[in-house]
Each structure stands twice: as C-alpha cells, then as structure tokens.
Specification:
The chain is mainly β and 98 residues long. The protein has a single domain (2-95), classed as Nuclear Transport Factor 2, Chain: A (Roll). Helices cover 14% and strands 50% of the residues. The protein is built from one helix and five strands. Strands 1-5-4-3-2 form a five-stranded mixed sheet, with helices on one face. A hairpin with a 2-residue loop joins strand 4 (72-84) and strand 5 (87-95). The longest helix has 14 residues, at 18-31.
Amino acid sequence: MFASHFLDRSTPDQPPGIEGVKAYIRSVRAGFPDIAVTIEDLIATEERVVVRTTWCGTHLATYENLAPTGKRVMRTMIQIFRVEDGKLCEEWSEGGDL
C-alpha cells in the first residue's frame, strides 16, 4: 500500500518510508488504544487519493507531546496522497486539534 520511499509532508518529524508509517500508527494506537476511524469520503484517481475521516478515541497515553487526559476525543482529518506505481508515496494532511 505504501511505497518504500513514502514521505508525509505534514509530519516533518516522521521518518520517511514504511517504518515511519508504522511508527506513526504505533504512536496513534498507544495514545488512543480504542481508536475508531470512520471514512466519510474517499476520492481516487490514478495519481491522487483524497480521504476525509473522523477519528474517535480515549486519550490514555502521551500523543504528539500532549499528556493523557483520559477524555474521549474526536478529530476530523483530510488527507491527500500522491500515488506512484500503484502505491502511496507522498501525503499532505489537515486535521482538527485534539
């Protein structure tokens, strides 16, 4: 799904590549162990994928330098991916604050 050279342009501290994606997913799951992501819209062409999602979860561990609050939170995200050779290779995203 992700190209070996994947680059998240919106998260500059995320290492490039598949290992960076895995590390990001681990940090989200650690911060919000009960996270549920709902895909609200999905638009795809040969060169781009755009997805609008709603994330809901309980903030139980540090996430993005925010101490855990124990509160249930909801965050909306819009992500734009560039596709190369059928794989996601670049991302730009915007999301609501936690």
